[in-house]
Structures are given as structure tokens and as C-alpha cells.
Write a structure and sequence with these properties.
By secondary structure, this protein is α+β, with helices and mostly antiparallel strands. The chain contains three helices and five strands. It has one domain. Strands 1-2-5 form a three-stranded antiparallel β-sheet, with no helix packed on it. A two-stranded antiparallel ribbon has the order 3-4. The longest helix is centred in the last third of the chain and has 10 residues. The chain is globular and about 35 Å long.
Length: about 70
Amino acid sequence: MLAICMGLRRGELVGLRWSDVDLDNRVLHVRHQTQRRRGTLYDDDPKSRRRKVVPMPALCVAPLRWHR
């Protein structure tokens, strides 16, 4: 749902934690991303090296509440 609605990079989506999701205020805090290098996963800063707060469409809130 987030990949379709938000346009985040794959590494940013995989790197999201529940602590980064604020369902009440409908925002995501993109603080890190997950990358794979030579078969090993590691966390890194976002590609732009800037942490960002992204508004989340209302369409995403209900599925995330259900999934959580």
C-alpha cells in the first residue's frame, strides 16, 4: 500500500519501523533505509542523506492499523 501511494524508494520502505509511522498525525518519518550489498543487509541513511517527514494519504491509515 505504501509503495503504491507514497512513491518511496524500496530501501526506504524496507527500512521503516513502527516507531517511524505516526498514524494519528498521518505522517511517516524516513530516518534510514535498508540496503543489500554482496548478500548482506545493512541499515544506512536515506539516499538523499536527509531524514524527511512524509505526509501519508488517509487511504493508507486503515490498512496499516489493521496490519499492526
